[in-house]
């Protein structure tokens, strides 16, 4: 759970999740939406992957990134239990 909160603590990573909510993307397409280096985007994607917020699938020479809605649903369920 700590990895999830660490990943969500950064605006760039939250913005990446918003992009991936719309469609699956390769790192280069994600990088085009930001004014930071491609290695920095890769670092952000790595943190999101370690938190299980993003999954990746290699297709040929490309890696396609997707949002992992299952972990987000689990997180929301946990947050709801705090209200009780």
Give a summary of the structure in a few sentences.
One of its GO terms (molecular function) is DNA-binding transcription factor activity. It is built from five helices and three strands, in the order ααβααββα.
Outline the structure in words:
This protein is an alpha+beta fold and 84 residues long. Helix content is 62%, strand content 17%. It has 5 helices and 3 strands, in the order ααβααββα. It has helices at 2-8, 11-22, 27-31, 38-50, 69-83; strands at 25-26, 54-59, 62-67. The protein has a 3-stranded antiparallel β-sheet with strand order 1-3-2. Helix 1 runs antiparallel to helix 4 (38-50). The protein is globular and about 45 Å long.
Q: Classify the fold: give the CATH topology.
A: Arc Repressor Mutant, subunit A
Q: Span between N and C termini?
A: 19 Å
Beta-strand content: 15-25%
Query: What would you say the CATH architecture is?
Result: Orthogonal Bundle
Globally, the shape reads globular
For CATH, the homologous superfamily is named as Winged helix-like DNA-binding domain superfamily/Winged helix DNA-binding domain
Mind telling me the C-alpha Rg?
Answer: 13 Å
Q: Please, what is the average pLDDT?
A: 94
In this structure, how is the largest beta sheet organized? 3 strands, antiparallel
Task: Tally the structural domains.
Answer: 1
Q: Into which percent range does the helicity of residues fall?
A: 55-70%
**Secondary-structure element pattern, one letter each:** HHEHHEEH
Strand tally is 3
- For the largest sheet, list the strands in their spatial order: 1-3-2
Structural class: alpha+beta
> Briefly, what CATH class?
Mainly Alpha
